[in-house]
Amino acid sequence: MKYVEEFRDPKAAKALLAAIARVTDQIGATRDHPVRIMEICGGHTHAIFRYGLDKLVHEGIEFIHGPGCPVCVLPMARVDECIEIAERPEVIFTTFGDAMRVPGAKGSLLQAKSRGADVRTVYSPLDALELARRNPDREVVFFGLGFETTTPSTALSIQQAAREGLTNFTVFCNHITVPPPLKALLDDPMMQLDGFVGPGHVSMVIGVHPYDFIADDYGKPLVVAGFEPLDLLQSVLMVLEQIRDGRAEIENQYARVVPEHGNPVSLAAIADVYEPRPSFEWRGLGEIDASGLRIRDRYLVYDAETKFGIGYAAAGGRTPVAEPEGCSCGAVMTGRMKPTACAQFGRGCTPDTPLGALMVSSEGACAAYWTYGGARLMEPAE
């Protein structure tokens, strides 16, 4: 296949759907006793709903939405810490647009901007570096956010800042890693999962072997998937075939993009600039050991937490912030609840008046439900 239209071919999709139905019947899955497959990545969630794959597959398959939206898993306290930095008069605070409207207890970065904070949307940490060069009398802070997909670009920017000797550029580091929260979910006896559709973009960086523990230790199949309809359907079929055959392996459907051992240049930059944090807080999952990254001592001058004495570097530690009353972001993000089962979905929480990140992030499950279903998906809350 060479062109995107080929990954959306209706005839090929019908053939895959027929194969999925056949294998699902062989497994004996039904609507009441479905095969529960977690798509880890929020981009996959949006693709599933955009193309209606949840409606097209056999009724014995249930998609479970995972914690693969980096904006969504950010706890409210970290948003408040962003605002604390941004409201300093000497600071130009830079961020990807996805994070502008994510609410914390003290509002959002967009609201901080409306109050006078100098908050700017950028498309790359290199944009923040350029701002630092042009504004030597200001402190330019980049909101380093995301999984392994975006971590290399931030690491390379820090390395560049070090080469240039820039002293007015720092990163508020909230980079996180995918494997530890998956282990936390698998260790939860309340989570009944039969297999995983693995994240494609993350795996471009880390390869497929960091997921080996899922098959080796937990006996669950995982298939790294692309983002087109045929990618996802083929990946679901590959998961189902493993379950039918009694296998548990890590397979790579997205081999046209994802190398087995990852991207060595990206991995080298990450290893040079970052080290695992002892612990990091995740929305809905709490503190997870070694799941976040922090800037190594050799680059500590570029660490905004250290420079401004906030967050994990604050004297006396940090204080967690409780979710808004009635908000079920944590349960939705970890697959314990569908967005439409949340009492606030489409009522107190809409894209115009979001209570949580899942409704405003481009990878949030609630945003996917709303964008591709809206009010017709709303059900009476139980």
TrEMBL record:
A single GO molecular function term of this UniProt record: carbon monoxide binding
Gene3D superfamilies according to UniProt: 6.10.20.100, HypD, alpha/beta domain 1
Signal peptide as annotated in the record: none
Keyword Metal-binding included in the entry's annotation: yes
Sorted UniProt keywords: Iron, Metal-binding
Swiss-Prot/TrEMBL GO biological process terms: protein maturation
One of the Pfam families matching this protein, by short name: HypD
Claim: ATP-binding is one of the keywords in the record: no
Protein family according to the UniProt entry: Belongs to the HypD family.
Official protein name in the record: Hydrogenase maturation factor
Protein source organism: Pseudooceanicola nitratireducens
